[in-house]
Amino acid sequence: MHLRAPAIVCSSRPHGETGAVVRLLSAEQGMIAAYVAGARGRQLRPLLIPGNVVEAEFRLRSEAQMPSVRLELLVSRGPWLGEPLAAAAIGWASALATAALPERHPYPAIHAALGGLLDAVCHAPSARGWLPGLLRYEALVLRELGYGTLAAPEGEADAAGHFAQFDRQGEVLERYVLAERRGDVMGARTLLRERLARMI
Questions:
Q1: Where do the structural domains in the chain lie, given as residue ranges?
Q2: What is the DSSP string of 162-181?
């Protein structure tokens, strides 16, 4: 396999002494796990922030191996990691994609929704501007994976209504999509909920 495509960084975990295994979501190939050599170095570490958009060049010598990948940064979410609420939203949205989506199954609608949500989190003046988009993203993940969905409130619903929907939808995600992995992943959502509660 030799593939070059833009992708969203969804997670990065250290592997070996200097490398990392990243999970990248592309529109046409879906979620792909790949090895990044030298990932812990000063040059590559900023590229592996969840939510970043990268140009990824995958290389696979055999089906028995994990592909290696070279990355070029297209859009950085780094400037928003100092904002607690934005950082929590970026972390949760990326973690949900990582935990929920199977390898190598394209979900172009989820890819587009995640990209749009991340842009909104980084550029909306407050969480009121992106919380409805987060609810629609979660509902889309539920629907695309075959779990149905709860009706998300319309954009004109108030912040308290969106927050109530956030809680209801979280129960569905935990019960079905994340039933076997809720520890770390739902921890990211719990952190986001705590920060949203302060806003409400």
A1: 2-76, 79-199
A2: HHHHHHHHHHHIIIIITTTT
pLDDT over threshold 90, residue 153: no
CB burial class (10 A; 0-12, 13-18, 19+) of residue 139?
A: buried
Domain 2-76 has CATH 3.40.50.300: no
Q: The whole model's pTM is what?
A: 0.92
Residue linked to tokens 């790949």: 34
And the tokens for 58?
Answer: 């995958």
| Burial zone of 195 (CB within 10 Å; 0-12 exposed, 13-18 middle, 19+ buried) | middle
Helices (H), 61-153: 84-100, 108-123, 131-144
Percent share of the chain, pLDDT over 70: 93
pLDDT surpasses 50 at 155: no
Are 112 and 27 a contacting pair, CB within 8 Å?
yes
Q: Is the pLDDT of residue 195 over 90?
A: yes
